[in-house]
Automatic annotation (TrEMBL):
Gene3D superfamilies: Kelch-type beta propeller
Residue ranges annotated for the FKB95-like N-terminal Kelch domain, each copy included: 2-142
Organism for this UniProt entry: Noccaea caerulescens (Alpine penny-cress)
PANTHER family: F-BOX DOMAIN-CONTAINING PROTEIN, F-BOX/KELCH-REPEAT PROTEIN SKIP4
Full protein name: Putative F-box/kelch-repeat protein
Amino acid sequence: LTQGPSMKCHRRVSYAVGVVDGKIYVIGGGFKEDEEMQVEVFDPKTRIWSFAGEEKIRWISSSYCASLEGKIITVEGDGDEMAVYNPRQGKREEIIIAKEKEETRRSDYDLLLCVCTVENVLYGCFDHSGFMWFDTKLNVWTR
């Protein structure tokens, strides 16, 4: 193993890491939960860290992160709130609030254990509900 270059900003808490178009993006991570910070991007080919745009963004604290449809998605620990960052546009797009369908209603204590993406589908494993996927058209977790 060799040591790579350091990021431009020290990041401490609640940051997200995602890979889009072969580059690694780091979002958030300020000393305070709602601190605005610039997104950094690492290009493994050039081995250079740079800022992704000039805008500082406020990032929600999150437990899990995945890359989906060319965007970086962070998901809170209960799976109910997600933030979307679009690196191609260099900005945070939206906060998604997950809705509930009667047939897939989860308990209030159903915590998300992990997320991953396969072929642009976001999957999550919950401690009570088990394995589910997120329907991005309806904004619901589905079995």
